[in-house]
Design brief:
The chain is an alpha+beta fold and about 375 residues long. It has ten helices and five strands, in the order ααααααααβαββαββ. A five-stranded mixed sheet has the order 1-2-3-5-4, covered by helices on one side. Helix 5 packs antiparallel against helix 6. It is rod-shaped and about 120 Å long.
Length: about 375
């Protein structure tokens, strides 16, 4: 509770009202009998000034012990009430439970409110026997009770508002953190899927050039040229990623992207692509997920499977799209360490984000079959 801040304008407004009322009472000579001595007026003004200074100090630096400023405020209020001939300063007692509600808690505030009422009743009992028959004193007591209720209600509302605002700030911070994490994961997937694919192709071509440099210079030079093209494609993907970050991304059709993927094979395995159906109704994110999955399957076939032929087939229906990437490579165990790399992990994340599914069918020596299914729009089940 000590972390909550009282409404800043309540206390200064009451101090100013009491000061103006007390001075007006003196200037207008409303007090019966001779006016109070000068020292009493000076003490009254000094007490209010001390309360204002205490308020400012508390606002700048929270005290280590919440009870100490409450006790100091209580003592100053008692002094001001004793010096005030207008008796208007009694309203300042409502500040004690009001401030305690923020600094200590509701229980302490209610206890101080009860103590204020008990103190006023005790003062009446000692100084004005039969006070309960005097309308003015009964009215003062009722007004104090109403002021205490209003002060406690305002404190409760203010704390509820501050608690809600802080919860909203924490939620906003969590959302920002999750958004940053999601963006980091997205960038990691894009870097792996685009740059990783092209740099893998360049590395394969450079290995071929290194092996055939002496035996077949012509093949080595062709491999170097293919590696150069792969690097250029990587730079193109970097520019496309920058355009996407700037909101200037243009989406190509899935057919065009898969055709470019097949042409980029170079001296690697032969790639055959087939696309059936219309892309209308499919979100760009879904089509990108299919393309990246095909790219990952081709990269693995080229780099790890040592395949000679890769087939990429896509079937687009009114309900869902299914991508099948199959190769004649050496295969692997889907539940083994080879299935936990960054590429397959990023592919699964990308597909799951668009509501799709991934299935890998492979075993050593039998090739690999990657099946990815994504829904069309917000609709239904995958293609059988």
């Amino acid at each position: 509770m000590a972390a909550y801040v009282p409404v800043p304008w309540v206390s200064p407004l009451l101090y100013a009202a009491v000061l103006v009322g007390g001075l007006y009472y003196e200037v207008a000579d409303l007090a019966p009998g001779p006016g109070p001595p000068l020292w009493r007026i000076a003490g009254f003004v000094a007490g209010l000034a001390a309360l204002a200074v205490l308020e400012a100090v508390e606002r700048r630096k929270a005290p280590a012990q919440a009870w100490l400023p409450l006790l100091a405020r209580g003592g100053l209020i008692v002094m001001v009430v004793a010096l005030d001939v207008s008796e208007l300063a009694q309203v300042l007692f409502v500040l004690l439970p009001f401030t305690a509600y923020f600094a200590i808690g509701r229980g302490a505030a209610l206890a101080l409110a009860a103590l204020c009422v008990a103190g006023l009743l005790t003062g009446y009992a000692l100084t004005a026997p039969g006070w309960y028959r005097e309308p003015e004193r009964v009215s003062d007591l009722l007004m104090l009770c109403v002021g205490l209720v209003l002060a406690l209600s305002m404190a409760a509302v203010a704390i509820g508002e501050q608690r809600g605002r802080r919860a909203l700030e924490q939620y906003a911070a969590q959302v920002a953190e999750l958004s940053a994490a999601a963006e980091r994961n997205r960038l990691a997937r894009d870097i792996h899927d685009s740059l990783g694919h092209h740099l893998t192709a360049a590395a394969v071509q450079l290995e071929i050039a290194s092996e055939f440099r002496a035996l077949d210079p012509h093949s080595a030079q062709r491999a170097v040229d293919e590696a150069r093209l792969a690097v250029k494609r990587a730079l193109g993907d970097v520019r496309q990623s920058v355009r996407a970050l700037r909101g200037e991304e243009t989406h190509k059709s899935l057919r065009a992207m898969l055709a470019g993927l097949a042409r980029a094979g170079g001296a690697g395995p032969h790639v055959a692509t087939q696309v059936e159906g219309s892309e209308d109704g499919y979100a760009p994110a879904a089509l990108t997920a299919l393309y990246r999955a095909a790219q990952e399957g081709l990269t693995n076939a080229r780099r790890h499977a040592r395949a000679t032929r890769v087939t990429v087939a896509v079937r687009l229906t009114e309900h869902a799209a299914r991508l099948v990437v199959s190769d004649d490579g050496r295969g692997f165990i889907p539940d083994g360490a080879a299935a936990t790399g960054f590429g397959l992990l990023g592919m699964r994340e990308r597909v799951h984000l668009v509501g799709g599914s991934v299935h890998i069918d492979s075993s050593p020596g039998t090739g690999t079959r990657l099946t990815v299914t994504v829904p069309r729009g917000h609709g239904g089940a995958g293609v059988p």
